[in-house]
């Protein structure tokens, strides 16, 4: 699969104890807000992908021990406009869900080629803002599985 993205990815919901959620706006698609996402590289396990993507997309350094692995995965159809990034014939992706709790909101260091803006929102507002159903559902599930403090 050299030169192509793997159809295995992570979603990392970064939040505070009160469930304020960090969202990033895709640079190539203004109005497309999301949590940290990214594809597996090589044979790295999902937790390693999550640690790498959090660092790349936000500048936040964390170890796998800081992540909460939800042991949940979503399979979804890859948007047609992004399928060229994957091997020929690949139309679906498997996404592994994680979360990272921070004591308080931090200003992320975003890569301008990937994201144009970042913001923190209360969980209900963040869920409403997400373009991805898997991201929306993860934020809603966060509030139910792990009640805010």
Largest sheet, spatial ordering of strands? 4-1-6-5
State the major sheet.
4 strands, mixed
Question: Kindly, what is the distance between the CA atoms of the first and last residues, rounded to a whole number of angstroms?
Answer: 44 Å
* Beta-strand content estimate: 25-35%
Tell me, what's the shape?
Answer: globular
CATH homologous superfamily grouping: Nucleoside Triphosphate Pyrophosphohydrolase
Q: In DSSP terms, counting alpha (H) and pi (I) runs of 4 or more, how many helices?
A: 3
| Share of helical residues | 10-25%
The stretches of 5 or more residues where confidence is low (pLDDT under 50) are none
Query: In the CATH classification, which architecture applies?
Result: Alpha-Beta Complex
Count of structural domains: 1
Structural class, by secondary structure, is alpha+beta
Q: What Rg is obtained from the alpha carbons, in whole angstroms?
A: 15 Å
- CATH class (first level) name: Alpha Beta
Overall description:
The chain has 149 residues and is α+β, with helices and mostly antiparallel strands. The chain has one domain (8-145): Nucleoside Triphosphate Pyrophosphohydrolase, CATH 3.90.79. 22% of the residues lie in helices and 34% in strands. The protein is built from three helices and seven strands; from the N terminus they run ββββαβββαα. The protein has helices at 46-58, 123-129, 133-145, and strands spanning 8-15, 20-26, 33-34, 36-39, 67-77, 92-101, 115-122. The strands form two sheets. A four-stranded mixed beta sheet has the order 4-1-6-5, sandwiched between helices. A hairpin with a 6-residue loop joins strand 2 (20-26) and strand 3. Helix 2 (123-129) runs antiparallel to helix 3 (133-145). The protein is globular and about 45 Å long. The N and C termini lie far apart (44 Å). The mean pLDDT is 94.
């Amino acid at each position: 699969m050299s030169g192509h993205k793997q159809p295995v990815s992570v979603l990392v919901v970064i939040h505070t104890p009160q469930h304020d959620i960090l969202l990033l706006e895709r640079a190539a698609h203004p109005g497309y807000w999301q949590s940290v996402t990214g594809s597996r590289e090589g044979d790295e396990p999902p937790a390693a992908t999550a640690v790498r993507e959090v660092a790349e997309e936000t500048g936040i350094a964390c170890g796998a021990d800081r992540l909460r692995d939800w042991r949940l995965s979503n399979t979804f159809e890859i948007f047609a406009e992004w399928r060229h990034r994957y091997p020929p014939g690949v139309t679906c992706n498997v996404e592994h869900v994680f979360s990272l709790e921070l004591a308080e909101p931090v200003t992320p260091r975003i890569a301008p080629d990937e994201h144009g803006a970042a913001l923190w929102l209360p969980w209900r507002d963040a869920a409403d803002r997400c373009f991805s159903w898997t991201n929306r559902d993860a934020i809603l599930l966060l509030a139910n599985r792990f009640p805010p403090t």
